[in-house]
């Protein structure tokens, strides 16, 4: 069992959560472009200095869950039993399960996820940053596959395809949180026909 967080850690977590909650409330009320860092800090009842201790700018608040998802993904991928996949179908089967776990985690708070998706659709700068951040997931997946012994060509391709399937599912699901995981799973499923070396005639 892990150690219980210290009082300082609990206060930091609370302050961070207050900032995120305040920001999303304000984005819903006024729209992303009309909200300033000062507005968020005042609503969260923290100083601007405290805001910048946790987030580089207001765009980063929109992606507040990203690091936790990355950490959980890395932890789960490293803990997978058995040998590292040596070919693309095996690698995709492994990353498919992990991506679906990420989908479930990302949509656990449906209202938060749906607001996040609407913000991306309404603000091109957020959509651009989201695309760049998705590459962090691809790079992490690639790195861990390599670490476990998967050939580099397989690791790179599997990680990039996994992100493409997530993006396709996300586009199909839109802001509908319950639809995300099934849509991503369907995207992965379409690959089965392409990768089957002995398709039925």
Keywords:
0% strand, mainly alpha, 10 helices
What does this structure look like?
With 201 residues, this protein is mainly alpha-helical. The protein has helices at 7-30, 37-44, 48-54, 58-62, 66-78, 88-106, 110-122, 124-148, 152-173, 177-195. The longest helix is centred in the C-terminal third of the chain and has 25 residues, at 124-148.
Summed up:
This protein is mainly alpha-helical and 201 residues long. The protein contains ten helices and no strands.
Rg, Cα atoms, Å: 19 Å
Helix/strand/pairing class, anyone? mainly alpha
Portion in beta strands: under 5%
Number of helical segments with 4 or more residues: 10
Question: Termini, distance in Å?
Answer: 53 Å
Give helix % range: over 70%
- The ordered H/E elements are HHHHHHHHHH
- How is the main sheet built? none
pLDDT < 50 runs, ≥5 residues: none
Mean pLDDT: 89
Shape: globular
Tell me the total number of β-strands: 0
Q: What is the secondary structure topology, with strand pairs?
A:
Layout: H1 7-30, H2 37-44, H3 48-54, H4 58-62, H5 66-78, H6 88-106, H7 110-122, H8 124-148, H9 152-173, H10 177-195
Helix pairs in contact: 1-2, 5-6, 5-8, 6-9, 6-10, 7-8, 8-9, 9-10
């Amino acid at each position: 069992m892990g150690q219980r967080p210290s009082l300082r850690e609990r206060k930091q977590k609370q302050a961070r959560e207050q900032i995120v909650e305040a920001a999303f409330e304000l984005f819903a009320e006024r729209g992303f472009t009309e909200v300033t860092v000062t507005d968020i800090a005042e609503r969260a009842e923290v100083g601007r200095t405290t805001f910048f201790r946790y987030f580089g700018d207001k765009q980063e608040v929109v992606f507040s869950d990203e690091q936790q998802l990355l950490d959980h993904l890395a932890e789960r991928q490293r803990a997978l039993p058995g040998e590292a996949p040596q070919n693309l179908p095996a690698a995709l089967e492994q990353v498919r399960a992990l991506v679906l776990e990420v989908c479930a985690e990302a949509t656990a708070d449906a209202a938060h996820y749906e607001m996040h998706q609407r913000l991306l659709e309404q603000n091109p700068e957020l959509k651009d940053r989201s695309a760049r951040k998705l590459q962090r997931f691809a790079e992490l997946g690639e790195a861990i596959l390599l670490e476990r012994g998967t050939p580099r060509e397989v690791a790179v391709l599997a990680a990039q395809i996994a992100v493409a399937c997530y993006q396709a599912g996300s586009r199909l699901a839109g802001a509908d949180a319950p639809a995300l995981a099934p849509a991503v799973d369907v995207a992965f499923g379409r690959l089965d026909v392409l990768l089957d070396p002995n398709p039925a005639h």
